[in-house]
C-alpha cells in the first residue's frame, strides 16, 4: 500500500521550534503533545480539510482492485478459476456513508474536539474479493469464467479512476504549496 506521504512533514514540523500546532490555537501556550498521544499538528487539520484523504482512499481502493483484476488476467487459462472483483459500487457507498458520518460528527463537535481531530476519517471498502456472478461471463468447459476482454476493460477503467485520484491529490498539494509560499 501507500506510505504516509506526510509523515516526514509531520516529524519536521513537530521538531521545529515555534511551529504552531492545533493546541497553540486554543491557548495551550506551545505545549506540544507527547509522541504517540494522539495530538494533531496543524498540518493534519489543514490536510483533513482538503479532498486529499478521500482521494487517498480512492487511490488505495483502485490499487487493491487492480491487484485483483491482474490476478484474474493471470488466471485466464486456469481450470476452475472464477473471476474475482472488488465492488466499486460498494466502495462508493461505504465512502459516502463514512463522509456523511464525518460531516455529522464534525457538526456536533466542539472547537477543541475538532482541533484535536476527534472526527473519524473516511473508511475504505472491504478488501475481500469474492467471485463475481454478474452473468456477463460465460462458464467455459474448464469451469473458468474469466473473460480477458472484460478484465482488460475493467483494468482500463480502474486505471482512469486511479489516475484521476492521483491528479486531484497532486493538484491539492500544489495549491497547498502555493498557499504556504504565498504565491497566487
Description:
- By secondary structure, the protein is mostly helical.
- The protein folds into 2 domains: 1-49, no CATH class; 51-180, no CATH class.
- It contains 6 helices and 2 strands; from the N terminus they run αααβααβα.
- The chain has helices at 7-15, 42-48, 52-74, 88-108, 111-115, 148-180; strands at 84-85, 130-131.
- A two-stranded antiparallel sheet has the order 1-2.
- Helix 3 (52-74) packs antiparallel against helix 6.
- The longest helix is centred in the C-terminal third of the chain and has 33 residues, at 148-180.
- The two termini are 34 Å apart.
- Residues 15-33 and 110-126 have low confidence and may be disordered.
Oligomer: single chain
Approximately how much helix is present in the residues? 40-55%
Tally of individual helices = 6
Q: What structural class should be given to the helix and strand makeup?
A: mainly alpha
Assess the beta-strand content as a share of residues. Answer: under 5%
- Radius of gyration equals 21 Å
- Secondary-structure element sequence? HHHEHHEH
Compute the separation of the termini in Å: 34 Å
- On the 0 to 100 scale, the average pLDDT is 73
**How many distinct domains?**
2
Count of DSSP E strands?
Answer: 2
Query: Can you summarize the main beta sheet?
Result: 2 strands, antiparallel
> Which regions have little confidence, pLDDT < 50, spanning 5+ residues?
15-33, 110-126
Shape assignment:
elongated
> How is the largest sheet built, in terms of strand order?
1-2
